[in-house]
Design a protein that fits this description.
It contains 4 helices and 9 strands, in the order H-E-E-E-H-E-E-E-H-H-E-E-E. It is globular, with a radius of gyration of 15 Å. Helix 3 runs antiparallel to helix 4. The chain is an alpha+beta fold and 171 residues long. 25% of the residues lie in helices and 32% in strands. It has a single domain, classed as Electron Transport, Fmn-binding Protein, Chain A (Pnp Oxidase, Chain A, Roll), CATH 2.30.110.10. It has a 9-stranded antiparallel β-sheet.
């Protein structure tokens, strides 16, 4: 399959940016020098005002290997999944940077936990379990930002894995 590559400066579609920021289940991945995958749960995402960069929050305590791999290669793949519908989008980047969490990041965490806990109740996941799974200390947050250069629809079905058109929000 041909990989869809967008210019790092090409903005994401407004609808896709809104989807990414809608407090979804997030998985962040990279790989080490041998090609072995590293993975961690994301704790929210923000799209820059120009829609050319995405910032994902991670727990430092759960992401040591992933953060090392991102710092070494700049490569990142992030899966954004809406639990209720299974709508999923994957973004990839080659210029990922690890950054300290900001006050804005820390302030966004409670709303992320509230929303995702509520979304997981769709699957009868007890709220107490979701909150325990998603809880972390403010000082455990770290951010990774990147310019998406590839985008794929990953919603289960015949189009899963298909590249998204440049800047589009089709999944």
């Amino acid at each position: 399959m041909t990989t869809h590559k967008t210019a790092a400066t090409e903005p994401l579609d407004e609808a896709l940016a809104a989807f990414i920021e809608s407090r979804l289940s997030i998985q962040v991945a990279s790989s080490d020098a041998r090609g072995l995958a590293t993975l961690a749960r994301g704790y929210g995402a923000q799209v820059s005002p120009d829609r050319c960069r995405v910032r994902v929050l991670l727990a430092c305590s759960q992401s040591d290997a992933l953060l090392r791999d991102i710092e070494a290669s700049g490569r990142i793949a992030v899966l954004f999944n809406e639990p209720e519908s299974h709508r999923s989008v994957q973004l990839k980047g080659r210029d990922a940077q690890v950054e300290p969490a900001t006050e804005r990041d820390r302030a966004a965490l409670p709303a992320y936990v509230d929303t995702l806990s509520r979304r997981l109740q769709h699957f009868q996941v007890p709220e107490a379990f979701s909150r325990a799974l998603l809880s972390l200390a403010d000082d455990d947050l770290v951010a990774v930002s990147f310019s998406p250069c590839e985008a794929y629809g990953q919603t289960p079905g015949p189009q899963a894995g298909e590249p998204l058109p440049a800047g589009a929000a089709r999944t």
